[in-house]
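Hi,

Apologies if this is the wrong queue. I'm a grad student, and the batch job for Aspartate/homoserine dehydrogenase NAD-binding domain-containing protein from marine sediment metagenome produced an output file that my downstream script rejects. I'm not sure whether the problem is my script or the file. Here is the sequence I used:
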Amino acid sequence: MLKVGIVGCGAIGSALARAIDGDIPQAELVAVFDRDGQKAARLASSLKKAPKILSTNELIKVSDLVIEAASKDIAAALARKVVENGKDCMVMSTGGLIGEVDILNLARAKGCKVYLPSGALVGIDGVKSASCGKIYSVTLITSKSPKALDGAPYIRRRETFGAGK
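Support response: The file is valid. Your script probably expects a header line. Output copied below for reference.
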């Protein structure tokens, strides 16, 4: 049984947690972490088998695979820490690994795997996969918490020039 820990309990982390909890018999969600403890508690209590709410260090220790679903700002540091501990890692915020080749080299040296899903808009991959048939219509709806945009370069530029007021 693959023991999985998830860092980040927002939309992506929650969807992954529910999938593991209900649809993947070979995996067990053993731990979650979110900097917002209430978010982690809500997610854990909503699952059939509630995972432990642990610090990232504790989560890494009890997991075989750690999934980063928090933000690109912590992706590299978390992936590095996971791999240093000899564990496999899946990084959902792949943009956070730009220029971080040392993590992949470290993973190779430690015999670990770093999984990088193909794109934040996974719906696009589904459309590409389905393109071998006939597609008549596609409706793709994505959402992002406004809180997730705090500090984004575009937002900061607009605030600097008074456009965001």
